[in-house]
Design goal:
193 residues, Rossmann fold, 8 helices, EC 5.4.2.11, 2,3-bisphosphoglycerate-dependent phosphoglycerate mutase, phosphoglycerate mutase activity, glycolysis, His_Pase_superF_clade-1
Length: 193
């Protein structure tokens, strides 16, 4: 039987609810996000988890804390690392997406949000995020997977998109169309075929 790599985007954050660019701003879950984390915990009850990785941001850590409490994972080792943080949105962090679209145009905001290699002002592109996430995946997470451990990674839309791009061997054109829903586990058999 093959072991599992489970990827989970945190539940909806307060900034997701308010339509704000979040990035590295450390905002917590909304009430809906708490409910999404509880629903994810129910979906994961049947999965054996040996090791957990999260970003250092509260919305990912709080999502895992909810899962930990519901699924009884208190003795499972946890590693937190900023390599798994959301992409940095730079000057846009904390600002309303609709206001920014009005100021710079919807097309420009779409380019900043969805292109592979064009960052927002003073922020990271998905490509930059990829080159932060994948080395960490190879140096830490993959080693645990290769030991036969079942791994849960609780992170963010763009850090997980970078990881999915790598795992599924997606092109930069394919990954810009990929959405990662909040609170919905993505389960891979390891090794990925």
């Amino acid at each position: 039987m093959r072991n599992k790599l489970i990827l989970l985007r945190h539940g909806q954050s307060v900034y997701n609810l308010e339509n704000r660019f979040t990035g590295w701003r450390d905002v917590d879950l909304s009430e809906k996000g708490i409910q999404e984390a509880k629903a994810a915990a129910e979906k994961l009850k049947s999965q054996k988890i040996d090791q957990v990785y999260t970003s250092i941001l509260i919305r990912a850590k709080h999502t895992y804390q909810i899962i930990e409490d519901i699924d009884g994972l208190q003795n499972v080792p946890l590693k937190e690392d900023k390599a798994l943080n959301e992409r940095k949105y730079g000057d846009l962090e904390g600002l309303n997406k609709a206001d920014i679209a009005e100021k710079f145009g919807e097309e420009q905001v779409h380019i900043w949000r969805r292109s592979f290699d064009i960052p927002p002002p003073n922020g990271e592109s998905l490509k930059d995020t990829y080159y932060r996430v994948i080395p960490y995946f190879k140096s830490d997470i993959k080693k645990d997977l290769d030991k036969g451990l079942n791994i849960l990674v609780v992170a963010h839309g763009n850090s997980l998109r970078a990881l999915v791009m790598y795992l599924d061997n997606l092109s930069k054109e394919e990954i810009v169309e990929k959405e990662i829903a909040t609170g919905v586990p993505i389960i891979y058999d390891w090794p990925v075929k």
